Structures are given as C-alpha cells and as structure tokens.
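Q: How do we represent a protein-ligand complex in a form that can be generated token by token?
A: Start from the inputs.
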Amino acid sequence: MTRVFSGIKPTGHLTLGNYLGAMRQWAAVDQHQADAVFCIVDLHGMTVDHDPARLRRLTRQGATLLLAAGLDPELCTVFVQSHVDEHARLSYVLECVATDGEMRRMFQYKEKAARERVRGGSVRLSLLTYPVLMAADILAYGADEVPVGDDQAQHVELARDLAVRFNQRYGHTFVVPKATLPRVAARVMNLQEPTSKMGKSDDSGPGIVYLLDEPDVVRKKVMRAVTDSGREVVYDREGRPGVTNLLEILAACTGGNPESLADVHQSYGALKKDTAEAVVEVLRPVQARHKELCADPGYVEEVLRHGAEKARAMARPTVDTAYRAIGLLPPVAEPALNAAR
Ligand code: TYM
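Then emit the structure tokens for the protein with tryptophanyl-5'AMP bound:
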C-alpha cells in the first residue's frame, strides 16, 4: 500500500491556503486510499523567533483543526513531531549527507532570511537546516508520496535527492518520495497582494482567510480582495493575478474548473460574491466540528498519544537501519550485557 506523509507547521493560525492546498486532499483522498501519516511539525515552529506558550497553543489548535477537517484516527495516523524522537535522530544523519550550498539555494530560506534581516533580527541556524529536518520527516516513514502545496515542492525535491544520495553511498535504505500537488489551488494567493502566497506566518491581515474566521469576516475579506484593472473575468495567472486567485479558490471550493467559472461570471462583483459564499460553505462544517472537539480536549490528547505510538513504531526501524548503514556502532543489546556480568 502506498505510504503518504505530510505535515503542517504551527507558526500561525491555519489558513484557507493550508486547507485547499493540502488538508482537504489529506482528508478527502489520502486517508482513504493510502497508509497515511500526518504530523503537526512543532520542531519546525522554532526556526524563527517564537513564543513557547503560543507554540504549544498553536500545536494543540493545529491538531484539533486537522481532526475537524476530517482526518479520522481510525483511518490514518495523526501525531506531534516532537513526540517522536526519530525525526531529530534522522535529521542529524541527513545533515551529514546534505551540503550547505543546497540549503542556501532553498527559496523559502532566501526569502525568510532576507525578511528577518530587514527586521533587524538574527537568522536562526535551524532556518537554514530546516529542509533537512523536513527530509527526515518524510524519509523516516518510507513515504512514497508527499501531498503538499506548490511552495513545498522544492523541499520534497531535496528529500528525493538526499534519499538517492544516501542509498547510493551507504546502501538502499530510503524510499525515494515524490510530491503530489492538488489540481487547483496549489498556491492560494494573499487576497490583498495576489502575487504573494497566502501564508499563515505572515502578519495577520485582511488578505488572509483563517479557517476559524467567522462567516461575516470571510465575506468581508473576499469582497475586499484586490482585483485587477479591466472588467472582464479572465483566467490569466500572469496578467490577472487577483481575479485568477478568486477563480482558483472558487473552483477548489466547488469542485469546478477555473476557466469555465470565468466564462459564467460577468463581473468581478458577482465572482467575489460567489467565492465568498463558497468559502463560507466549505469552512462551515470544519468550524462546527472544531467547536465540538474543543469541548473534548481529552479526545484530541488521546488521538495524539496513540498517533505518536504508531508513528514511533513505523519510523524506528528505518532510522535504525540508516544509523547502521552510515557506520554508527549499534548499542550493545541487553542480553549481551547480562551475559558479560
Ligand atoms: P506549512 O505549514 O507552511 O503548510 C502546510 C501545507 O499547506 C500548504 N500551503 C498552501 N497551499 C496552497 N496555497 C497556500 N497559500 C498554502 N500555504 C500553505 C503547504 O504547501 C503545505 O503542504 N515545511 C512544511 C511542513 C512540513 C512538511 C514536512 C510537509 C514539515 N515537514 C514533511 C510535508 C512533509 C511547511 O512549512 O508547511
């Protein structure tokens, strides 16, 4: 059976981008068709300046929202990254396979490091090495497929490269994974800045729809979305990024096709209205289920405890194999110790 692994970082409140680009596919398709493993990657939440209490809060909220979005612990594994030591264990080994040049070429590193520097902050070393930890997340589970939005494709490519390089040098150890992107909405753009990704770690603003935004807030944000000069509704990513973003969101929410939706909308106003309502309808059941789950925190904790147990059992053998393959001396097993006494 195909093994699928993906993760989400608790660095901010989850957005419509996270949902349409990744979470929805995990719930609607992956957990039914594959042996699927999903992780709140809290270690990744410490690569930029962070507040410990907020990280804990967002980790719990992220897990609750994954379940609210439809992940079913009977069908898939849901857990928190820091509860399973194998991620950090494997990450160091992969740092000994990756090069610093590879890390410095990563788009996200270049962008985020530049932003931190402009703010006068220092750049944490973990921001540079983060894609190696992400590769460890994926390779530890022998994932065949990694369902992600477009912004993570380069990181998955790195995981592939490291898997191939490790296997060539030290013997076959890792499955070589591939990224799978959604048909539409692989990159949902900020409603106020349609040439930038809608990102949860950005400063909160009217251009980001959060999964827990009230319906009226969603409507306001979509109705105020920046559109392009011109009047016709045309699907054209380069020339009409604002309108194209709305068409993609509407298509993702309704299961339609962005080009055909362009043909049936006569004005930007009508497109915005339909998009706003479609988003409200998509978020409605997620928000209702989130409310129920918040009333039962013991359930979420139990899911995460059991998920971590399952995840450890999956990852441990692969990480142990990688340790042996790269030349690390295995610890002496208990019976031998006893015999020596
Ligand atoms: P993160 O937390 O930024 O995003 C989680 C998932 O949501 C997708 N996504 C989007 N898709 C479409 N449009 C958007 N505007 C948008 N914003 C986010 C992301 O592509 C991602 O699929 N490094 C990863 C987390 C991670 C991971 C992993 C993913 C860590 N280890 C192993 C897969 C496998 C990240 O920061 O995602």
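The pocket of tryptophanyl-5'AMP is lined by residues 5-9, 17-18, 21-22, 41, 44, 134, 137-138, 146, 148-149, 151-152, 155, 185-188, 197-199 (CB under 6 Å). DSSP finds 13 helices and five strands in the chain.
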